[in-house]
Amino acid sequence: MDKEQVAAVLNDIGVLLELKGENPFKTRAYSNAARTLEGLSEPLAKLVAEDRLGEIKGIGEGIQKKVTELVTTGRLAYYEELKASIPAGLVAMLQIQGLGPKKVKALNDKLGVETIEQLEAACQAGQVATLDGFGEKTQAKILEGIAFRRQFASRHLLSDALVAAEPILDNLRAHPDVIRVSTGGSVRRHKEIIGDIDFLVSSKRPENVIEFFATQPGILSVSAKGETKASVMLEGGIQADLRVVSDAEFPFALMYFTGSKEHNIVMRQRAIDRGLRLNEYGLFKSKEETRDPKLLVACQTEEDVFQKLGLHYVPPELREDKGEFDAAERGPLPRLIEWTDLRGSLHNHSNWSDGQNTLEEIADYMDDLGLDYWAITDHSKSSFVANGLDPARLRKQIKIVKDYSQRLADAGRHIRLLTGSEVDILTEGKLDFPDDLLAELDVVVASLHQGFSQNEAETTKRLIRAAENPYVHIMGHLTGRLLLEREAYKVNQQAVIDACAETGTWIELNCNPYRFDLDWRLWPYAKSKGVKCVINPDTHRNEHSQFLRLGAGIARKGWLTKADVVNALPWEALRKELKKKRSRLK
Q: Which helix (H) or strand (E) covers residue 279, if one does?
């Protein structure tokens, strides 16, 4: 196991011990040890092999033995026994928003609740509201959380789907009997939440491909297997379906299985209007549904199909029947942003607040990626849970970041570090730092991290006031949503976009896969108002820089081009843009 996997097990142990009511100092020791391991600069396996774990502050003898067992064997008997001692339903309850280990234990102790179904019944009977520390509001919130969880029970994050799909896609691509291969459905359209994963292959030997697919690593079970189709369940509970077609059918099948349903309906009607029939098997010269190969209109690619129906090519991300047909009739669609266009990020955290990496580690990693710049925007003081910086610490960090960035330049390194802060938007829209301190920073991201219970008008007013501050460059994760976990807070997003247009404030597309906030559906409106996008991974560890690729896919769904995205600018151009809003002060 690597350090992230071991840290995850230690965190789980802490949660499970809390469910059992263990001493809080004991439970906290595991979470602290997990945080320590995540921040290691040396490989964990090396520390274990050299018996140096005990030298690290926060790793006591007991935890040291457990970490060693995990690293050397990949298992931990203590962890497995602990999990077996706790009803699985109690752990499942932790997935309901607002329920932590202490509340779950209280529900179990006082009401005997062991499953989500029992919890729901207890709430509906009004029993939960009578418990100390709960009340009517908490009871209602729990019911809302259960309904939310049930609504998305079979839904998955795009990031999880891609992690599961890409190794299989690569293996299929390398198979000698595969001619062409692609994902389809919501994964290919880059939807933020997906239901299942669709694979499409063209081959002359479909039976060989089906057998190969059914034996891929990561498959838990095979639910169906026929001559040209197969369905499997992958690790993580994601269903994956494979369809194998002839190479002549591939362009039509790819279009059909990519969707969306709404897009396909319009495409089929365009075919009918031209005396043709379009289905998953082909485009046919017929007024009736058919699969007759003699009537097939030859198309080698999807581009050919669009052309036959009087359209320029529509990228998969835009196939949602949200304006793509009018645009494709007028002319070629604009070249959408590519993740390789991105030159850096303006919202990232270091180990000065709740990030895992040092400034040196961040600079080395991003330089190796070939990026031009990377802003250090740690949390402000009101985010005390995230070890937010007070003014004195921030001023100290500003000096260190500037000095280090200059040393990088003097050494001929490509990467540049920018000073910054993710500053909390407080009550009534006041910011967590005074203007004179914000003026010292290269980049200021303003975000809500508290007061989510305000009504729409109050929240909207707070955000607009923050956008009006001349020192704020970027509005961070505008709705605060966490996909599949937490609904967005109530806010009039169009009103905030209008305010950003008036003040020259940029809006973040936070590309953490749990956020993708601002939503892609609103970017065409923001773009029409002249609001610029910043695709930020909101990194808390270096590996999160990979989210930039995901963010570019969501930006493409929002019709964004390279010209619409601030962090597609090279270093010198970015520096000029950062100064523009503050030039309004003069």
A: strand 277-279
Q: Mean pLDDT over residues 89-102, rounded?
A: 88
pTM for the model stands at 0.83
Backbone phi and psi for residue 194, each to the nearest 5 degrees, phi listed first? -125, 160
* pLDDT higher than threshold 90 for residue 108: yes
pLDDT digits (tens, 9 = 90+) for 251-284: 999 999 999 999 999 999 999 999 999 999 999 9
Report how far apart, in Å, the C-alpha atoms of 561 and of each of 105, 353, 371, 493 are: 50, 33, 19, 21
Both tokens of residue 251?
Answer: 């362009």
d(CA 216, CA 218): 6
Say how far apart CA 558 and CA 143 lie, in whole Å.
Answer: 34
Taking the CA atoms of 99, 105, 108 and 109 in sequence, report the sign of the dihedral they define: negative
Exposure of 169 in the CB half-sphere (CA atoms within 13 A):
16
User: Phi and psi (nearest 5°) for 524?
Assistant: -60, -40
pLDDT digits (tens, 9 = 90+) for 328-386: 999 999 999 999 999 999 999 999 999 989 999 999 999 999 999 999 999 999 998 88
From its phi and psi, is residue 186 left (phi > 0), alpha (psi between -120 and 50) or beta?
A: alpha
Contact 127, 107 (CB under 8 A): no
Separation of alpha carbons 343 and 569, rounded Å: 7
- Could you report how far apart the first and last alpha carbons of the chain are, in Å? 56
- Token output for 166: 């890409």
Is 234 exposed, middle or buried, given 0-12, 13-18 or 19+ CB atoms closer than 10 A? buried
